[in-house]
């Protein structure tokens, strides 16, 4: 047993239409789930639907942006600043998702700078780390996730508003979920890394959530692992099974 509140994030990625988003919100609003004292639920629509979702979503669920700019806004066409998210009272932002690291060439330093800046503007951050299949097969999983975590950690003064998401790249959107033992192993090592490099208190209190092909069928066993404090869910967060995933908190 631990005092970390279970956390379930839904990453809607670049999906949705006005109608589709309404349907998902209504599915969420009608879901019967454990109370806010037991599970923290955060869904992340595209920027363009954030405001609609925020205003129509049940009050015990919260919203996250999927990205924000690394620094103060200004002449950065196409970007959205942390100040703007704070202004709209968007409480959370996902940073360092592997799709952005890989497809938009976001470097470790850039991700670390973004996390530090967003936190400084008062946002809460879901910071993502994870190894590729090649890195796993070559035995460098822990080196990779520790290096990604270190780049973030060295820029932070305070971990209170950070949730760390372990998302093995080979498991994202592939249907190849990490086994409960594989997830637990990395989560345990990440917590140990926090203990040795940040502090025992931060290690004990920081939520480390798993992401990568989480579904209604596999969530319960993953949630039972001692160092798995919740999930970041992509594909299944658009479907009614997201409610089942939230229920795995208990
Ligand atoms: C994600 O994008 O964060 C994710 C985990 O996706 P999926 O659940 O679809 O693998």
TrEMBL record:
EC number: 5.3.1.1
Compartments reported by the entry: Cytoplasm
Pathway recorded for this protein: Carbohydrate degradation; glycolysis; D-glyceraldehyde 3-phosphate from glycerone phosphate: step 1/1; Carbohydrate biosynthesis; gluconeogenesis
Quaternary data: Homodimer.
UniProt protein name: Triosephosphate isomerase, cytosolic
InterPro entries referenced in this protein's UniProt entry, alphabetically: Aldolase_TIM (IPR013785), TIM_sf (IPR035990), TrioseP_Isoase_bac/euk (IPR022896), Triosephosphate_isomerase (IPR000652), Triosephosphate_isomerase_AS (IPR020861)
Gene3D superfamilies xref list: Aldolase class I
UniProt cross-references to CDD domains, sorted A to Z: TIM (cd00311)
